[in-house]
Specification:
Layout lengths: L4 E4 L2 E4 L1 H11 L4 E3 L3 H10 L2 H4 L3 H13 L3 E5 L5 E5 L1 H14 L11 E7 L6 H14 L2 E4 L2 E4 L4 H10 L6 E7 L4 H7 L6
Antiparallel strand pairs: 1-2, 3-5, 4-5, 6-8, 6-9, 7-8
Amino acid sequence: MKRRYTRWKGRRIWSPAKRKVLLLLEAGVALSFAGTLGRQYKILSEIPEEWKKIDRQYLYRLVHEFMHERLIGMRENKDGTMTAILTEKGRKRVVTVNIDRLKLPAEEKWDGRWHGVLFDIPEKYKGAREALREKLRELGFYPWQKSVFVYPYPCRDQIDFVVEFFEVRRFVRYTVLIDPSNEAELLIHFHLIKP
């Protein structure tokens, strides 16, 4: 039996198939089920290529699991088929999947500006503060100070998404720096000049 998830740093990490199914549903790709063999063949002939790459038995198990967790609901169509649709809880789970896949841009030419994330998150929200630090490191930010992280390319949209996800918007600032002191440390770290 395939593992549904693995553990990483104490967190459950969803399998690629689970992520794929949720992301396909979120993108509006319809997943329909039919009771009769004739209807199943008709649906299979029209099924998008993305669904064909997922093992059918595993897919059915995932659908039942998602229904049990109330991530999806089923809607009956006029032709007797059933369509899986994401619930509000399912949409929130997609956001979690998306943050795990988030990547920052790396442009070919650096414009000489540094993009910083500064935060002062109270002890009351320590878990969110540590999660934000970990995510910024994972994204490639340089921890310039304990609560100051720097990246050489524009990434405001991605940071807005991250701070909304961790619900720390009011404690976090995004800034653009030009000619900061001790810039050589950053230039060396991001390989923008040779040491």
